[in-house]
Amino acid sequence: MIELRDVSHRYLAKGRKEMTVTSALEEVTLAVPRRQFLAVVGSSGSGKTTLLRLVAGLMKPMLGRVVVDGQPVVAPGRDRAMVFQHGGLYPWHTVAGNVRFALQLSRMASGRDADAIVAAQLDRVGLSEFADHYPHQLSGGMQQRVALARALAVSPETLLMDEPFGSLDAITRRRLAGELSRIWEREQRTVLFVTHSIDEALTLADRVVLFRSGRVVHDVVVDVPRPRDADAVLEHPTFLELRRLLWGSL
What is the C-alpha separation between 194 and 157, in angstroms, rounded? Predict the structure, then answer.
């Protein structure tokens, strides 16, 4: 269980003459049950990425508490893995080396055990034949698949995804969203998925939270059966109803 309890966060920027205060989150209370796929949507500056970074332990809230399984979040942990918009791969490592390095940092596995985990994860995302390639030799979509494999390799309880497909073309974005959906249905991890796309959120998630000006405006359950066909879901009555509701509140 992930909980935000009355969380507020502001950014302070010191100028030449005065201090500028930007509010990112305002009194947010939110609970995410284990194994739920939660999508967070909203326009730029609505607080989505701040929320994710607080849960990841990359920042501490100015007010309120972030709690995971009853324990306050004070730092990053192996139970939470983050996938950024731009994969953040290490250019001096191969594809396999990037995934293996995550295992080394977490001290989760080494030697043959690490090799087996790396091979399994690359097979899962369809990149086994590119194990010895370097990031610059891959397309943007392939780099994001490496980033996903790296995150999954450490077996996190929670996967935090910050616009992971935002910089990709529409075709690649749709393919990767389908892969993520299949992986989630198979493994049932908790996922917090930040996106600007309402259609993407409603296609992937069990639940969608809409942020505006740092506050939760809507919190809706996506009652559409799984597995979901990417085309058929667009015509489902619940999908259409929720899409109208969320678009009308942006």
Answer: 17
Please give the distance of CA 210 from its chain centroid, rounded to a whole number: 15
Look at residue 84 and tell me if it is in a domain. no
Which residue has 């989630």 as its token pair? 184
What tens digit of pLDDT does each residue of 170-198 get? 888 888 888 888 888 888 889 999 998 99
The fraction of the chain above a pLDDT of 70, given in percent, is 98
CA 190 – CA 196 distance, rounded (Å): 20
- Segments in the chain forming alpha helices (H): 48-56, 95-106, 111-124, 140-153, 170-187, 198-204, 237-247
- Domain match, 169 and 240 both: yes
Residue 191 tokens read as 């996922």
**Residue type, position 27, single letter:** E
Omega into 227 within 30° of 0, i.e. cis?
yes
Mean of all residue pLDDT scores within the chain? 88
For the question of whether the overall pTM of this predicted structure is more than 0.85, the answer is: yes
Q: What average pLDDT does the segment 119-145 reach? A: 89
Within its chain, how far is the Cα of 137 from the centroid? Answer: 25
Residue 71, in any domain of the structure: yes
Instruction: Please tell me the total count of domains within the chain.
Output: 2
